[in-house]
User: Fold these one by one.
Assistant:
Number 1:
Amino acid sequence: MARADRFLNALAGKPVDTTPIWIMRQAGRYLPEYRATRAKAGDFLTLCKTPELACEVTLQPIDRLGVDAAILFSDILIPIEKMGVPLAFPEEGPRLQPVRDEAGIAALRVPDADAEMPFVMDAVRLIRRALDGRVPLIGFAGAPFTLLTYVVEGQTGKQFTETKRLLFTAPRAAHALLQKLTDTVVNYLAAQIRAGAQVVQLFDSWVGQLAPDDFRVFAAPYVRTIIERLKPLGAPVIYFANDGGSLLADAAGLGADALGVDWRTPIDEARAKTGDDVTLQGNLDPCLLFAPIPQIEQRAADVLRRGGGKRHIFNLGHGILPPTPPAHAEALVEIVHRIGSELHRIK
Amino acid sequence: MARADRFLNALAGKPVDTTPIWIMRQAGRYLPEYRATRAKAGDFLTLCKTPELACEVTLQPIDRLGVDAAILFSDILIPIEKMGVPLAFPEEGPRLQPVRDEAGIAALRVPDADAEMPFVMDAVRLIRRALDGRVPLIGFAGAPFTLLTYVVEGQTGKQFTETKRLLFTAPRAAHALLQKLTDTVVNYLAAQIRAGAQVVQLFDSWVGQLAPDDFRVFAAPYVRTIIERLKPLGAPVIYFANDGGSLLADAAGLGADALGVDWRTPIDEARAKTGDDVTLQGNLDPCLLFAPIPQIEQRAADVLRRGGGKRHIFNLGHGILPPTPPAHAEALVEIVHRIGSELHRIK
């Protein structure tokens, strides 16, 4: 089987020769070549908005690591800026002009992705051409609830006080914002798919802050809508509800082809909650890549065993961290492919 | 039944007239009288270390809210300073001189709580006298893993990179530190109990960062040891593994009389994981106290229903937040007692 097919087959529940693997943030600061391109770009937003540079960093890990998918280099906040929320990326992390009231929400626009974010679609086209069929390309967006937290908090939330104040005291305004974010994400991901993204992932990085009852009101319906509206385009959708152990049973009913699972919930326990009709993606603790390679092998083997070679895509349970030795990421891919191929031979 | 007995009876699995309630951080910044005492103290550490002031703020919410337990006002990092780690509390949160290597860990001391933290035991004695039997007094400490994160990160962790680097690359040093923290906590809680604390709670605020396999190695054994070593003193122990939905089944086997449950895991789901031999404490999302009172009532009723009046102590799923209107906290206590008494009458 061609390396090119593993990831898509695992998403579709078709047979694979070994467990496919890609790594969240695989194009990132742990790679010296990424840091060089980043320095060349000057700042992070310029890197995101320059198709040649975004293409360059997207490609860097593909052959070095031997992963089975590429993921567009970008940031989930790019479309937020185009909705009318000024955005900057100082050292401390993203900073936005927070929007917290009905008037501010009413003033936000749903941007036309092709017209207003052409640099993203250009990057997608360049990457597809450069990949030349080696592996599929994943496009992505933030999920509506997670995007809402940035719009409302104006930064990465800590206790998400402003977010929840909006949800619990002004639910109508919250739903208006979630609906605009949903429309934006649908338009944005559809444009990525038309430009060549073969799969899309929805990152719900902060949805684990919600109790299941609130997830059902403020997150799940919007994710379901996005998946339904993208369905005619034919690209599989992966939904990653980070820190969402309590949300997995609900998440399984939203129509996604795959669910990301963070490292807190063992894959076999996740499987018990989701049933068999969805692919699971995850979930080694990213910090285990600091450990010596034999220990990485032992823990990766455990994740593979729990995955049972059954609709499983290997990944970390969260993004790879800057202090990770690149050789350890390379070793992980080799380990997963080796043990995964034994697992699939046995079946 | 006297208000004084509810909380202890619920911990012991004995009948109660209504569901007892207390609120994590009930003595805190949401109360204007707390802010006044805090201003009088000048800084946070002085407030913690002045028995009369610590007593004053501990007592403030008791009659105002009508809660069924008092909790010592202090901070989990107090004993860490006495272990030899310089500590400050600027506006941004706690700052410590981080300790990350074997030599630094070997240099840490296990303080004698009575001799080196007499202000804590004095506060406990003052509070017991001032409470005069109205409600029981809870003492507390951080659990070893959570304390380790502060020692190693030097502050409140974000991605806990340094913590996990220690666990995964220098496990011997990590265990040496966890053992010293365990000895410190046992000595510290035993002193609190001898001074008059009738119950103690172990706060494992960051243990939810661990996958279950790592919880079993780096957290659970130390919590079990603390509980075993305190058992002869006769004070019930509550263990709160924050964001620990995946850890609840394991946590139930550690010998605690009660487990705190954060707001992410509904109490009935937590119960299914823990079995019936432990009291559960929680778990309304603290941000729901921003909502209008009818909505608080609806959600509190749902928590009570899921608790089933069966070994349940009501609490928030995390500490009460500074922007909370005090009237909403008062309303919550009234709601829980009212609905809880119907629940217990029906049974």
Number 2:
Amino acid sequence: MSENREKYDFTIPTLGLGKVKSPILLSKVFGDTIANYVSDDEKILYHIQVDEDSPGCAYEDYGTIQKAGPREKIYFNPDHVRAGIITCGGLCPGLNDVIRSAVRTLWYRYGVRRITGIKFGYNGLLGAVEDSLMDLNPDVVDDIHRIGGSILGSSRGGGDRTDEIVDAIERLNLNMLFTIGGDGTQKGALAIAEEIERRKLKIAVVGIPKTIDNDLSFIERSFGFETAVVRATESVFAAHQEAHSAINGVGLVKLMGRDSGFIAAHTAMASHDVNFVLIPEVPFDLEGADGLFEQLKKRLERRNHAVIVVAEGAGQEHLAADARTDASGNKVLGDIGLYLKRRIVEHFDSIGYPVNLKYIDPSYIIRSSVAIPTDSLYCSRLGTNAVHAAMAGKTKTLISLLNNHYVHVPIELATRTRNYVDPEGSLWRDVIDSTSMPIQMTNPKK
Amino acid sequence: MSENREKYDFTIPTLGLGKVKSPILLSKVFGDTIANYVSDDEKILYHIQVDEDSPGCAYEDYGTIQKAGPREKIYFNPDHVRAGIITCGGLCPGLNDVIRSAVRTLWYRYGVRRITGIKFGYNGLLGAVEDSLMDLNPDVVDDIHRIGGSILGSSRGGGDRTDEIVDAIERLNLNMLFTIGGDGTQKGALAIAEEIERRKLKIAVVGIPKTIDNDLSFIERSFGFETAVVRATESVFAAHQEAHSAINGVGLVKLMGRDSGFIAAHTAMASHDVNFVLIPEVPFDLEGADGLFEQLKKRLERRNHAVIVVAEGAGQEHLAADARTDASGNKVLGDIGLYLKRRIVEHFDSIGYPVNLKYIDPSYIIRSSVAIPTDSLYCSRLGTNAVHAAMAGKTKTLISLLNNHYVHVPIELATRTRNYVDPEGSLWRDVIDSTSMPIQMTNPKK
Amino acid sequence: MSENREKYDFTIPTLGLGKVKSPILLSKVFGDTIANYVSDDEKILYHIQVDEDSPGCAYEDYGTIQKAGPREKIYFNPDHVRAGIITCGGLCPGLNDVIRSAVRTLWYRYGVRRITGIKFGYNGLLGAVEDSLMDLNPDVVDDIHRIGGSILGSSRGGGDRTDEIVDAIERLNLNMLFTIGGDGTQKGALAIAEEIERRKLKIAVVGIPKTIDNDLSFIERSFGFETAVVRATESVFAAHQEAHSAINGVGLVKLMGRDSGFIAAHTAMASHDVNFVLIPEVPFDLEGADGLFEQLKKRLERRNHAVIVVAEGAGQEHLAADARTDASGNKVLGDIGLYLKRRIVEHFDSIGYPVNLKYIDPSYIIRSSVAIPTDSLYCSRLGTNAVHAAMAGKTKTLISLLNNHYVHVPIELATRTRNYVDPEGSLWRDVIDSTSMPIQMTNPKK
Amino acid sequence: MSENREKYDFTIPTLGLGKVKSPILLSKVFGDTIANYVSDDEKILYHIQVDEDSPGCAYEDYGTIQKAGPREKIYFNPDHVRAGIITCGGLCPGLNDVIRSAVRTLWYRYGVRRITGIKFGYNGLLGAVEDSLMDLNPDVVDDIHRIGGSILGSSRGGGDRTDEIVDAIERLNLNMLFTIGGDGTQKGALAIAEEIERRKLKIAVVGIPKTIDNDLSFIERSFGFETAVVRATESVFAAHQEAHSAINGVGLVKLMGRDSGFIAAHTAMASHDVNFVLIPEVPFDLEGADGLFEQLKKRLERRNHAVIVVAEGAGQEHLAADARTDASGNKVLGDIGLYLKRRIVEHFDSIGYPVNLKYIDPSYIIRSSVAIPTDSLYCSRLGTNAVHAAMAGKTKTLISLLNNHYVHVPIELATRTRNYVDPEGSLWRDVIDSTSMPIQMTNPKK
């Protein structure tokens, strides 16, 4: 397995030197040494794999990543802080947990008292909605981790109207903005931070990356992802029961995963009931000896039932082909789940071997779910570390978990590339081991 | 924060060179290159932290760890394999998931057909129980991940009767033994493997480390741990409701954690309802201005209710003191939960400020729980990689997750030290941030 | 509120007098009296409501219903029994629990050793599937209540091929058939029993009514119904979160309920998040001041979000109208959920007040679900009492819960009419109280 | 089976005639007839069983019970209402659901704007706690059904200080009091209502009976009971897993049930894993051929593991005997769970057949649980009907479900006797059928 050996620049932009004594109190260990603040010099290696090609001593050459955590000297005087929090894009389990944690850390640990929630994403800054501001404090957020969604609401778009957004930020007098959102949101945040810089303002922009698909680079696991997998297994279990109880039963579950198949791959392993996993990274044929139809038939002949999990971004080549054959142009099917449902039923009808297919699309149930406790904990730690970063004057920065450490990653770097399931990597290999999926169908390049 | 800089020897013992072509088929990528086997030379760095003290280029000097996964050449001819699987010690979520995964990988991927489950731990090899063997195959294990416990049963002890165990292994004609268990079990496994070596037998001994407390070294997260945290939060929520609904309500929950407080620390963060976390690594006073009684009183005066989580190994110094004052010797209280319950009630009665304390000990409910899907997935990958290791002739080896990679760790190394919550580390710091626990009570050294 | 005062004939058909001493042992109370067998004379009143119109002393005139339970003298000699069990129609939570309970009662309480499961419904008796028989015993059914679906599989149709089915029953030498299924299944069972009678065979046919919609007459609550409501609330909660987190968010959930709105009504009350409940029994307008569009707009203006639950059989008049206007005939929309989704979005777009509608159809997730424990208990008691009935020689009979007692109901009677939500009754009234649904929309007759 | 044939007086006390037009709007059916108000004359029969002993036409002689629901004419002018709500005694799932429903019905349906929650039970009226009042409105109660416990808090006792309580009620100017609590609470409520009467005040006292044990007479099923059973099955499942995974494993679960074994009986049937059910109504021996020890040994010899469920009130005769033999008086064991744990372990040690016993006491986890949706629905309907009753001027009245109808029951009647599991009835018989418990152990009278 060969690994990307690009050298990355993990330098974290800052608003300036921290000169204010942090008000937070930490455990004092070994007498008078205050030990568990984190220094900017504490880093971890990015590249940690060793193989015959690894140059002896140059791991640092691939980049070292700054650890997150509270700094002993911070940039902002807590009394002067006015923080804004915004959630953008589609729902994802854990949004409220991140909000709650950020608010509590600002309030209890730094003594910040002016915290503003901006409702419905960037649109809330653009005058698109009434009552778009919400005062946040520990009482308001006390129980919000018990419900899904975002108490701030969310919406898509608006992030490209940078000038207007920065105008609004200035009007609101914010000097700290937490952007909870995905790729587009963070690109917007970067543009906002750059405009802030142009205007010579001192406003920290810190992002908490949200991507239920887990497809952001430089973040090991996105928040909400574990919850998504847990919820998704419930739908797979339902599909399995339906398939198992029917004559030639086929359960078909469409899961999230626009560009990468992480949810589908993990769900397949976590549920133990999946026979075929179709993801964007691994193209598949429908027809032919190695195609889905034939392989599915073999499975049905052997076991009478089958379960297929398909990521929403898988098999787009088939949809395109279908659109072409369809000619008129306005009937392009965009939904691989519905497409497979139709094609499978038609195919097996045509060969006189009818199947009993049940199709489940649990997307809204999954993404609006309450975070499971271990995910909630993760959200909590991301939120806390985001506050530490902003108080220390970091900006244009995301909070991330990498090589099992909480770290700072430049937004610019994180939004440059996406994360994909490596068809040659251990995850996909373990999916094959676990599902016993026909090996011909697991090959990304034919 | 200073880090242990000992250099470790991660050399993996093997029975011999792999000369057999692996029967498993993997994705063929880029034409004829078979790419996703793992070579023994693929390793990851153990030490990945960088700070001012780090010598420039010597990360490898701290040890490199071999990646787990299927080898292209394996040691055992699958036709000759007779594998044994054993589960020892207390229950832990995920035992059945590990068994299931090992059986399926042996059967479907390598074609091994002789798999024996040994019932009730090492005692099952010692003639202590009737019907102590159980044939395992994919049908037998098909649905076992839906129930908790271990289908093989489990028991404590017996691991020190090495000679008899190896005699039994010889009688059973096993050439591969998977030991699923904790510290003691793996030490037993090492002794067994050494005796095997002395007898010049070719039997692979591969361990899957089980420790619900998460206190094994060289493993990032033990299987079942996430499930334990999820289940524990349910008891904490119950304690919170009880406390919240009573006059001066105090909820007290005792969680597992004999030597280390990982479950308590994670549960406190995951549940968001905990005010005091008492763990073995951080001693606490009962009396005095910084003691639990006074701090608890302050909390009650402010909010009228409080939740305390205590790890079973916390505060042992108090139990010892109590035993001394008790004199007679036979009434030594060994249970910190019951001890705190009694002391708190007595103290607050004595100061005319009675509390309404509800005590919950959910240990058996937690440890017998079915693994949550994400934990089940993890068990599945550990079991699969354990089989790959044994087939490749590795022995005296554990499967572990380190720095986010599945790796091989020598049993000898893993059982040498335990893993503790670092009171100066980021986990404990985030616990303080999250619980707003009084800072005086978070100090390990007074 | 006026009540149906028809007098029903609850006479239970039997194969003949019970002459065999029951082998089951029950608690002997008060010395030698064996007390807790049930006599055929033990009955309950059907009509229990009293009002000014009730004739003084004639409750028995409305019919009395025989209590279910073990008879001291039974019809069949257990040694001669060969029992068949069949599950038909769509899935429903609890099928396996009923099967399990029937098998265990036959086996452990009566000593019956020949129990045959017929796979895939009536089709399994018609040679439509291979391997359509399955031996049942306590070991086979031991853990089946932990999974959903039916281990026997199920399928629709075939119940009208009475002659062939009775031929098959004769070939299999069954003298007892348990039919677990809905309206159609039980009508089929009745026809089968009548053909059995014509052939002068002594075969008991006892039904356990299955209708997730809860729309069978003479049964208070169908098994699986509670589980369906619990699962449905999860989707409503998701819809609520989605709606609440969006600008003008509308959550639309389609639930089961072809002819009656019990699931929708109960789910609305159980979830506390529903603003509009649309059921078949209460027609509604889309347009006009009292129509859904206008009322929904009012709700959105007031609260910015709304949740609608619609039973699949509601608003069929709109679909028909839509079909007519559509003219061509082949594009008739049959799905009220998708229809409402389209119409609502189009309407609010057309008035320049766009809504953010999320549509959830959780049917397969609900019906394949594992029964919740209280439902499982109910299934268990139905199965047990079905066995008691068949052993006693009852036939053409359903097991039912009425006025809180387990009773026998003639299939002929139970399949004659359906059960509906009474728009003038207490259930619908409590729905209105609970949802604060606009009163104009709750009126069944305009 | 013989039934209690006492004739009961179900006359409902009222404050006076309803003269106020109800402000609530209900569905108008059939033109101008307003049909779904409930008249005081609408009743149901109490006695509905028919057997050879039933006198022909005298069902009404056993009492008829008034149906609950909104009256067309009500006693109180909503503008003048000041309602109080109080929760007393131990926690029970659904308390918040009842509060929420009562508040919403008062507010939205009747327009009542002055609703006061009294904190911590009767003690909150007695000056025992600070800040003992809480304004209630739909916003305050909006999400409280998602948490367990009671937002009003609860406490035991105080209900006998009738004079002081009525003084407080007068000071608060309440004219409507909802008492949510058990036997003692409702007896207190009755005394309060009598004192109110003596003082010639017009204050309605309406109770919602709370008893997690389900042991109140004249109520079919108490709220929270279903949730308790669902939660209890989780502990039984844990006990089963522990027992199943150990050598001679015994799982012992103590459940609530001070005087009656309903939770234990239902949980045994709902969980399918229980072998012995010990309830207060059915005495059992420990020693002897029919005793628990011998029967447990037989089970272990046959299956190697066993699960015992014991209601907290079971086997009190053994505790008393134990206390006697213990002599000193101060070491009386009051806990049947801990007692059985000790005795079983000692016994099997003494006969050289050691068992591996795991003891689980889940009481606090159960009673603080959030109500399951179907239970929540039930709470909601109880709360709504309680408001209808009080608005109509009913007093000294409980809301109950009887023969599947919501009805009014005089407090005086409901608190006179308790409800027990009838060892000759269908529930206990079905427990025996379901658990295959040794028949000798199911006999209440030896």
